[in-house]
Please model this.
Amino acid sequence: MNIKDIIKPENIVYNKTKLMTDNILSYCPGCGHGTAHRILMEVIDEMGIQQDTIGVSPVGCSVVAYDFMNIDMAEAAHGRAPAVATGIKRLWPDKYVFTYQGDGDLAAIGTAETIHTCNRGENIVIIFINNGIYGMTGGQMAPTTIPGMVSSTSPYGRNIVTMGNPLKITELVALLPGVYFVTRQSVHKPGNVRRAKKAIRQAFENQKNKKGLSFIEIVSNCNSGWKMSPVDANIWMEENMFPYYPLGDLKFDGKLVEKTSK
Amino acid sequence: MKGNEAVAEAAIRAGADAYFGYPITPQSEILEYLMAEKPEERTGMIVLQAESEVAAINMVYGAAATGKRVLTTSSSPGISLMQEGLSYIAGAELPCLVVNVVRGGPGLGTIQPSQSDYFQAVKGGGHGDYKLIVLAPASVQEMADFVKLGFELAFKYRNPVMILSDGVIGQMMEKVELFDQQPRLTTFDPAWTITGKTADRERNIITSLELDPARQEKHNQKLQAKYRQVESHEVRFEKIECEDADYVLVAYGSSARIGQKVVKLAREKGIKAGLFRLITLYPFPYEEIFELTNSAKLFLAIELSTGQMVEDVKLAVKDRKRIEFYGRFGGMIYSPDEILSVLENIINEKS
Model:
């Protein structure tokens, strides 16, 4: 039996969604972007809203997300995706509008746009990929780089005295009244992928029901920027990123989720 | 009606779909007028006060990407903040209208009128090789009319259009005849607008990014070809008593209003003066000014700046005739008598 005998329609158990194009992903092997793209497109496919969805890509590794997502998209200036999405959504209130942004884009240069778009309660979805580093420009310190973490611009580790603390922007936006749903997920294990996809579905259902802004942080690895193997990066993420950025819902149905102490 | 109010009312009547803006003197009346007028009830037009000029121009980017008719307005420091967005809008070839009611600079400068943003508007402003189509109104009537014209040009060329006004035209009151209400857009070009990918077409992407240098060069060539089209079809100007003029004043906007009075005063004294009023600053009427070098002896460029537009006048005149410049700045405005005496001094000095 050779490979051609195996690749037959009757043997297919899992397929790439048709909302992902056939373009080769530009992401590093082991990166979470590909999975995040895929579950996002699966949700749009499953909801049957391709013809009503407009995405906004950021500046960063996912700048060319429009090469991979088979939907209408606009590419925003660095950090401005929420403003661009506001412009689209205000004029097309019945369309589904989302932004897909990294930590440098959303939590550094675009902080004002993020906070004010959330505060206005724009009825959109924000997908926030947090890998604690500037991936595309080669591994510089991000607003979300955790204390002590090494990057090319914090080569001796992030010193919070001189470089400031990592910004917990997800906690920040959860406090804003215009924000309806805030959750923090990951896509490094099958169970996490399923939960992240469920959260994305929830976010788009919220938009459908005109509930206001849904904000999904996906804590992800950057094995290239972190200078680790994909497996080591995922272990490092669990041991170092998750304690600082704990997974789970922060706000659900417009209400802050009570933290239970372990 | 104030010039700023005329812009606001004209935007509603031109069938604009949205306005995004941030308050700044001397043009805040535009946002105030729009909010008071409730255009959403009149035409369905959306008005949103953004958190900054940076956000406002990017809201314009998003809205324009869907093929809608959108505008923003600001004044000099705010327009500086919009330069990033304008570069992206030009690169992505999105139609939109931006009104700059200019005040004096640099920096926070002054809230008084000035014409010191000519270079920024006409020569670029943001990064990269791009052009805005720039219209210079000289009356409240033109503040209104150029909103409509601006949208027409923006959509004709898929290019941002700027109305370069100033605090004089924005704040002054004049009679204005407003055009009738135009309908808002109901169809959006499926070739490029992002309104949701339907089964009958490929996905549309609005971007200014092209990482392949050969393709980015091609994109730039396409933009340049478009600008050449604009240059050959859209030059607009007004010649006032230029036919027999020995001395031609070159001006735009509020300076052109003052220049018109100078011509009248000069003619009363027997000085054959004329005014060449620029209406489009880009495209610039190089050839039309050059033609006047056959009859005129001297060109006097006047601008409320330290001398920006005069550089284009020099390019137009090509050293064939003498060119002088007179400007006031920092919010100071020259009087017609002041300019007339400048002209007389130049003439006397020459003879």
Remarks:
- Chain A touches chain B at residues 50-54, 56, 63-64, 66, 69-77, 80, 83-88, 90-92, 95, 112-113, 116 (CB under 8 Å).
